[in-house]
Design goal:
The chain has 203 residues and is of the alpha/beta class. The radius of gyration is 16 Å and the shape is globular. It has helices spanning 3-18, 25-38, 43-46, 53-62, 72-77, 80-85, 97-106, 110-118, 133-144, 163-171, 187-199, and strands at 47-49, 66-69, 89-92, 125-129, 152-155, 177-180. β4, α9 (133-144) and β5 (152-155) form a beta-alpha-beta unit.
Length: 203
């Protein structure tokens, strides 16, 4: 089978196994893409979508957004060809020398310093977190201080320490967001969400 045939068959299986759902169509496309990536149907229940977030994210991406991720894995998984067609940019500052050095000096995580570096971006910002709760905690802090104004936050870190709490912080910021409730998530989930949104613009 050709790759596209495999994908089409996979989505047909996902659609059949999901059955009837009251998830809005634009959200459902994201949910299906995440299930396709993870083979985990729990995401049909635990993905949280703030009001109109997909519409806002699609409009932001279509206008040429700056995506900042917390991991190189998430960055690697995002479709660069479509992002380039949309005049978008993508960055991951986690391994930058200045970020590494400052994190050591201050005794904080690189993810924290990377969020601060994202404040310098001039394009509409979409912040994508698949691994680091400390990135979400810093985002919450800077949003409250009005030092950063992301258009959308994808908050899907995986793990046990401060993961649930950090996601809850983001849901209370008022910033449009897609959040994986609970402990589940990951960089692959983060990338699949962005791709699902871009595929609604171009494919």
């Amino acid at each position: 089978m050709k790759p596209m045939e495999i994908e089409e068959n996979s989505f047909a299986i996902i659609t059949k196994e999901l059955g009837q759902t009251d998830i809005p169509d634009e959200n459902l496309l994201v949910v299906k893409r995440v299930i396709h990536t993870t083979a985990d149907f729990d995401y049909a229940k635990n993905l949280y979508f703030s009001e109109d977030v997909c519409e806002i994210a699609i409009k932001t991406l279509a206008g040429g957004a700056c995506i900042v991720t917390d991991t190189t894995m998430a960055m690697a998984g995002i479709n660069k060809n479509i992002l380039s067609e949309l005049n978008g940019e993508i960055y991951c500052f986690i391994k930058d020398d200045d970020v590494v050095d400052e994190a050591k000096q201050r005794g904080v995580t690189r993810a924290t310093v990377a969020v601060e570096k994202a404040m310098k971006q001039s394009k509409p910002l979409i912040y994508v977190v698949g691994n680091a709760p400390t990135a979400l905690i810093k985002l919450d802090e800077l949003i409250k201080q009005k030092k950063i104004e992301p258009k959308v936050i994808i908050a899907v870190p995986v793990g046990f320490v401060n993961v649930v709490e950090s996601k809850e912080l983001i849901m209370k910021t008022g910033v449009p967001c897609i959040v994986a409730n609970g402990r589940k998530g990951g960089s692959n989930v983060a990338a699949s969400i962005i791709n699902a949104l871009m595929y609604q613009i171009k494919r």
